[in-house]
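R.M. (postdoc): so does anyone remember the format we settled on? I'll just put the structure tokens first.
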């Protein structure tokens, strides 16, 4: 059986939540359920899966060597348990992503609700898949169940996971741009007053303000370019085998460029403030 999809999940978790420390046990029931709690649940479930998977490999090896009905029965039990836990890993991971989006700032409710609906659909599918596993009659049936889950993950689940994780930084960037634009507007109003009162020559300040406005515009352009890459996550007639990690990295690169333009704008704003306050 193939487990590459879980290598992907681990990589995503480490990439998107670097500030969360892995915990060996789930948080107490009375603790508020938030992203950190959901992430801890995922890490705990992943630890359980790694242990169960080791038992599965041992039972499989013993069955292949002995070939007895007893060994076959143990191998089937271990396989069922492993696949059930594997489904748990997917559902807890998706739940962690959902909670991360719940707490994300700057993302519209329409966007959030659309992603929530798709995440919930995937969680429901894997929970139902887990319930059906004990009814498998043979190891071959379990193999088919495993391949079904892998196919679902590759074609649908990881797509919504990547889209959700890619959408989160858009919200932060939007808030940052709005704040920068608001400060620039206040500066322009102040410069107008200074020029009207004849307090000082504002030519250089006005030129810097135009440069700040240009930086904000270029930041927005880069964000639009990043947004245009989101459809690349989806498999269709033009994109049969999407490279989710490549698309994600391209989006983050564009957003980093956008963020850098805003950082430059902020530095220019600081210069303008010093110039305005200099007598």
């Amino acid at each position: 059986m193939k487990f590459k999809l879980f290598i992907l999940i681990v990589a995503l978790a480490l990439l998107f939540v670097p500030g969360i420390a892995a915990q060996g046990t789930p948080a107490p029931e009375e603790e508020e359920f938030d992203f950190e709690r959901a992430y801890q649940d995922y890490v705990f479930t992943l630890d359980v899966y790694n242990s169960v998977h080791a038992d599965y490999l041992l039972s499989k090896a013993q069955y292949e060597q002995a070939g007895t009905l007893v060994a076959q029965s143990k191998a089937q039990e271990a396989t069922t348990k492993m696949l059930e836990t594997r489904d748990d890993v997917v559902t807890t991971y998706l739940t962690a992503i959902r909670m991360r989006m719940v707490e994300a700032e700057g993302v519209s409710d329409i966007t959030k609700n659309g992603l929530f609906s798709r995440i919930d659909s995937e969680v429901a599918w894997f929970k139902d898949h887990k319930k059906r596993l004990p009814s498998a009659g043979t190891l071959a049936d379990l193999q088919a169940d495993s391949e079904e889950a892998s196919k679902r993950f590759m074609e649908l689940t990881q797509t919504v996971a990547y889209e959700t994780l890619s959408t989160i930084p858009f919200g932060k960037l939007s808030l940052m741009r709005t704040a920068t634009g608001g400060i620039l507007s206040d500066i322009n109003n102040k410069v107008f007053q200074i020029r009207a009162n004849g307090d000082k020559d504002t030519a250089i300040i006005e030129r810097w303000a135009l440069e700040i406005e240009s930086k904000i515009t270029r930041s927005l352009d880069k964000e639009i370019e990043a947004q245009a890459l989101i459809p690349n996550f989806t498999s269709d007639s033009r994109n049969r085998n999407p490279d989710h990690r490549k698309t994600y990295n391209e989006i983050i690169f564009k957003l980093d460029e956008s963020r850098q333009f805003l950082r430059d704008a902020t530095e220019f704003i600081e210069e303008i403030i010093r110039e305005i306050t200099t007598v």
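R.M.: ...and that's the designed sequence above, right after the tokens. Also worth knowing: Residues 4-158 form one domain. The chain has two domains: 4-158, 172-277.
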